[in-house]
Specification:
Layout: H1 5-18, E1 32-36, H2 46-57, E2 64-69, E3 78-80, H3 110-119, E4 127-129, H4 136-145, E5 153-155, H5 163-178, E6 181-187, H6 196-199, H7 208-223, H8 226-230, H9 232-235, H10 251-258, E7 267-270, E8 273-274, E9 277-278, E10 281-284
Parallel strand pairs: 1-6, 2-5, 2-6, 3-4
Antiparallel strand pairs: 1-10, 7-10, 8-9
Helix pairs in contact: 1-2, 2-4, 5-10
Amino acid sequence: MSMTVLDRHEMSSVPRSAAQPRWQDGDAPLPSIYLSHGYPGLLDDELWLSELFEWAMSMPKPRGVVVVSAHWENAPTSITSPTANTPLVYDFGGFEQRFYELTYPTPDASTLGARIAAMMPDTESLHVDHNRGLDHGAWVPLRAMYPLADVPALQVSMPTHSPERLMDLGRHLRQLRHEGYLVVGSGFMTHGMPSRQLLLGTTAEPESWSVDFDSWAAQLLDDGDVAGLSRFRTDAPGMPYAHPTVEHFTPLFITLGAADDPEGPVKTTIEGYKIGLSKRSFQLA
C-alpha cells in the first residue's frame, strides 16, 4: 500500500511531538482556541496538517483537551466517555474506506471529566454519555495536532446556539486553561455548500458569500466586537449561504467565553480556503 499524506505527516511529526514539553504547574494558561476542523479530507492536505501541528507545537502539550464540536448538539450538557480507547464516531459519509478504519486511542480522561463537572454551575448537572467517543470535529484535528494520541480528550456537547449561553458555558470552562487544559471550539468559519466545481476540485476560488463572511468575522474579531459577532444571523454578509445551519460558527462563542478577555487581542493561526470554505482559526489568551 502506498504511503498517504497522513503517513508522511506522522513520520515527521511523531518524533517532535514525543519531545514536546508538557504543561507544568506555574506555566502560563493555555489559550482558548477556535479551529476550523474541515472534514476527513483534511488528513490528505499536507499544508493543513502542518498548520495544525505547528500550532500545537507553539504551546506546551496540554494535560488534556476539551472540545465543543459542531457535530454534537445535545441538551442537557453532556461529555463523551472518559474511558481510554473509546471508539471514534465516524459521522461522515461518501469517503474512502480507509477513513473509517482510522483510530485515535486517547488515554483515560476521568480526571478531566471530573474537573469539567466541577466547573458546571450547581443548577446544571453534567451527563456522561458512556457510549459516545470523539466525533470527527475532535479526532480529525487532534490527530494532526497530537499524533501520538497521548493527550486525554473529551467533548462537551453544544446544548444551544445562543451566543450568550454558549459564552456562559465557555466561562465555566475558563479555569481549566489555567490548569493546563486546552479549550477548543471546533467548527468551520464558513460552512455553506460549495459549488459542484469546488467539490470536484476543478477550481480553488471561493465564492463571494464565503469571502465576505470570512472578512466580516475577521474584522470583528480584530475589533473585539463580541456583540457584533453575536448578531451574525442578521448582520453578516454572505448569510445565509455561509451558514445555512449555524452549528459550525457557534462554537466560536465557547472560545470567546473561555478566554480571559473575550474582547482581547486575537491571534490568527490559520487562514485560507478549502473547497471554497474559510479555514480561519485563532486563539485568545
